[in-house]
Amino acid sequence: MSIYSHNCQVTLPAGKAIHKVTWFLDSYALPNETVYLDNLEITLNEGSHQRNAQVDLFWQGRDFSELSEAQVDTFFSDTPTLTHDNGTTSLRLSQASSGRYTTRFHLEAPEFSHTYPEYLMYQASITNPSSQPVSAQLYGSASYQKQFRDADHSAAFAPSYYIAPNSTAVVPIIVDLGQDGLTTDIASTELRIEADGAVLLNGLTLHSGTSLSDGLVTIATSGFETDSGGFTTSSPQDVTLISQAQQVISGEQSLGFDMAPWRQAGFTHYFGWANQYYADKVYTQLAVQLQDAQKDTPVRVCTDVYYMGGGKDSYCKERVLGVGSFAMYDVYPVDSERRLYRILVRVRAYGNASIKGEMDNFVLGYWPAIPAQ
């Protein structure tokens, strides 16, 4: 006979009506064994814990002005320099022997409030102070414990993020911990940043979240290892899609494409008429690599959110490339008062020239919302 006691907690989103509270128990008893449940208590406390269902794990990163030199040494490696310029406190990345500018953020045993966290999300604010563009690479990872299993590890990679001259980019990276509801402990997490030019790290936020409260709900995720990941085209005579093991972005295969001018391929998710889905944000992640394209060829990636009864919001990112690559990790606002009908993500040859290349690391998701009553 054994006795197991568990005290769990979850943070509910601020400013939203609570529709229902559900408590569940997964039992792994052997045949003919009996499980007794006792001393169950559910308490709702207002304003006594975190303010949002995305729990902040590294509050010092929001404003580096309160970060001491000792904390820089504790959390960051590769000796970044704490700088103060025009009222803004930043970390200046140091140049390694390879010539690249690097740092590594590491956090041991972060405290989290979700009973079973499903993802960690980094958002790094990076400034390029020079007159030349900079390409940055980010690698996020986490080590964690699964209930009834050994330790596990997950990673996410932003292979090439373009930062324009004299500008700031906010780069998000989501590390997936799995939606099996069995993640019980986060042992450590880290973020590595590399750039081919001098950059400043202005802020770094780290959240844990779960779709059981108000976290990211994943619609689709694909590395295109076995198929097209749901991407299709309405112009098969002008667009070719094929899984390929040559010129791979990551993993064993990427989704190769060959597009005539102004043609596109896309992924569509229908929510359906019978279901009522609302959201306040959507998330699109995709890496694109061009192997055959004229110089200054525009490539456009759009996320179209369609609402029930008509109307839509469209968000497009355009890159002007020849042969090259880019990755996008973008969060877009959605009208939380309107029911969702479908979401379309499309890659388009946005010009008078054909393009040929690959795409990889596709993720589409949304943050649920409860409309005002």
UniProtKB/TrEMBL annotation:
The name this protein carries in UniProt is: Uncharacterized protein
Name its species.
Answer: Pseudoalteromonas rubra
